[in-house]
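Late entry, evening session. Most of the bench is empty. Finally got around to the prediction I had been postponing all week. Sequence below, unchanged from the version circulated by S.P.
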Amino acid sequence: MPSTKQHGTASPANEAIGGIPTIHYLDFASRGRGQVVRLMWEDAGIAYTDIRYSFEEYPEHKKTTIAEKNPTTTIPIVEINGKILTQSYAILRHFARQLGKYDGETEEEKYWADAMCDIAVDWRTQFVSAFFNPNKEETYPKHQQTERIRFLKAFETHLTSHELSLQGPYVVGKTFTYADMVIYQILHDENLTQDGMKGLQEYPRLKQLADAVESRPNVKAFLESDRYLG
């Protein structure tokens, strides 16, 4: 049976998004695309219901529960106020607009957040392909030495050269956006933020971004709580 847990107490942020959302996702510690959605809710102080499926039971639920909610049978799925939301990055942008933050203020800021998010999405595609490959012992080390380095260097270059990123620790300078969470999550899932950000020592600007995300009060509280599963 999937595990179901309630987190947090309803807040004004819940009112802004129309209620208490429920997320369906894999029981994959605090990792993956679904975790980015949880991270936004944690930062915003949104109460939510967390339904987790083990890797063993998920194939069966994919044919039934998930297929009934999403014809593409992909997760995460979010349910709120009778509505079903799919596609993790669209979900993030949707809640950002409802909350009136996390999306940048000007069109230039919104573009830059979207562009940097898309780069992280491309990285995650490569990561998942290598990490969940049947030949992981060969594919993932190769990924770590090739594609991962390519994306790390690309982000470091963008963050140290774009005029918005030069104005503060985040993608859009001093403004925290959903793109920062998306980038942070792939860094985390690649085990680059653990052990004092040891994996980011050669990428100081990326380390600055990850440090800034982890230093946000609600994110810090989450990482120190039993809700954070590593």
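Two things to note before I forget:
Strands lie at 3-7, 22-26, 48-53, 77-80, 83-86.
The CA atoms of residues 63 and 163 lie 47 Å apart.
Will write this up properly tomorrow.
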